From TrEMBL:
Domain of life: Bacteria
Taxonomic source organism: Gemmatimonas phototrophica
Transmembrane segments: 6-29, 41-64, 76-101
Transmembrane is among the record's keywords: yes
InterPro entries listed in its UniProt record: MFS_trans_sf
UniProt keyword terms in alphabetical order: Membrane, Transmembrane, Transmembrane helix
Protein's name according to its UniProt entry: Uncharacterized protein
Length: 241
């Protein structure tokens, strides 16, 4: 409880000091007609305000120590320091967690990344005419679901299979990714391949994965459980590689 009261004293002193410093800087700028060119007045007021906050912080800590019963000033002072340190640690940890978990385009040394996929399908299941698109791909995160570009022109045959390349960019930095392959009018296959938050952009193709689940498409006739038609593998590359 002492630490909590110490934090209140210290924060109150810092806020008061910042306000006094800000007011003093504004008054000084007005009396001396400080130039506002390039934001000089703003820098001055913020700088003096921060100095005032530091002075107020120290003053608040001293006042809290003086409010202690006789002989306990040092104990109260250390309690205030502990409380402030804990508060700063919580704020820093919260800010770091927010920045770490925030979804944004993944970058490697300033270059964004492309998620490259290959879908392996039995050749007998691929129609001769893939227009309109026979399949569609989306990469889902908690906040985004960008579509992948199916490169039909680069489709190739390997034994009894057709290999269909897909590119999705930019790849988002995310704690989890779900790759959804839709076969319009037929079924949807959902993949959750193990993929690090920041994949290795130099790694080769992953192993082939089968879908975690297969769902009937809206409007499709239900015929019990559906079997998967697609296998998937991935790799990540920087733009331009």
């Amino acid at each position: 409880m002492r630490s909590l009261f110490g934090v209140i004293y210290v924060l109150g002193g810092a806020v008061a000091g910042f306000g006094v410093g800000l007011g003093a800087a504004l008054l000084f700028a007005k009396l001396t007609n400080v130039s506002s060119r390039d934001g000089a007045v703003g820098y001055l007021t913020i700088g003096v305000g921060l100095v005032g906050a530091l002075v107020g912080l120290a003053a608040g800590m001293a006042l809290y120590a003086r409010s202690a019963p006789s002989g306990q000033g040092a104990t109260y002072g250390w309690s205030a320091i502990l409380g402030v340190t804990t508060l700063v640690g919580v704020v820093v940890l919260g800010a770091w967690s927010w920045l770490y978990l925030m979804e944004k385009p993944l970058e490697y040394d300033g270059a964004m990344a492309t998620l490259e996929l290959e879908l392996r399908v039995d050749a007998a299941n691929v129609p001769a005419d893939t227009a309109p698109p026979w399949l569609q791909v989306e990469v889902h995160t908690s906040k985004t679901r960008p579509e992948g570009t199916v490169r039909w022109a680069a489709m190739r045959t390997e034994g009894p299979h057709r290999i269909i390349p897909v590119m999705q960019n930019p790849l988002m930095r995310a704690t989890g990714r779900v790759i959804v392959v839709q076969l319009p009018g037929r079924q949807t296959e959902v993949f959750t391949p193990p993929m690090p938050r920041i994949p290795d952009s130099r790694a080769d193709w992953s192993a082939w994965f089968r879908p975690e689940r297969v769902e009937s498409a809206a409007g499709a006739e239900s015929s019990g459980s559906r079997s998967s038609m697609i296998e998937l593998r991935y790799r990540v590359r920087r733009y331009g590689e």
